[in-house]
Amino acid sequence: NPLKEIAAMVKEKYPEVLVLVDAVSIMSGAEILVDDWGLDVVFAGTQKAFALPPGLCVITVSDAAFERSKTTENKGYYFDFVALEGKAVKNQTPATPAISLINALNVQMDRILAEGVENRFARHAEMAKYIQDWARKYFELYAADEQYVSPTVTNIRNTRGISVADLNKELAKRGAMISNGYGVLKEKAFRIAHMGDIQLDDLKWLTDQIEDILEL
Length: 216
What we know:
By secondary structure, the protein is of the alpha+beta class. Helix content is 43%, strand content 12%. β6 and β7 (189-193) form a beta hairpin.
């Protein structure tokens, strides 16, 4: 999504409105200029582009959002930024910490910095292009407007009418899996992730397996 442009429009027309962004599958996989774009709250789960098991949420909070939290009643537990900050300055968490996941995140952050943030973003862009080109060749991108395709996961329309479930059974025998569509999109679409620790060679191997199984 054109996040920068959306945020700019909101700030211009509705300056009192805070901009909250669900970056669950993209944070650490593509550029998000929180301050420059005027994003007030940006959160993500570490089970996506951070390539960790589920269980942690990372969040950025602007000064404006922090001040709003001070005066907002009935804001609930997760939006009580004052209480969260009170624990953070003591290097504590508001509830029992998932120590193993926090340690894993520390290790992963070292890996991200070692790779280099710009290099990491470039790798994700290269992987996205590869999968999206492959999808155009053999199937079809689900997004009607390609400006909305993601740099970290691609949703592919099942134009060949294959059984995604059966494909996954065969892929499992080879040590891989893709994601079937959710709900009404089950078997009508499938998703291939290209994020986190995945490398371009991993994706080339995966598409080779799919082509072999489906005899494409």
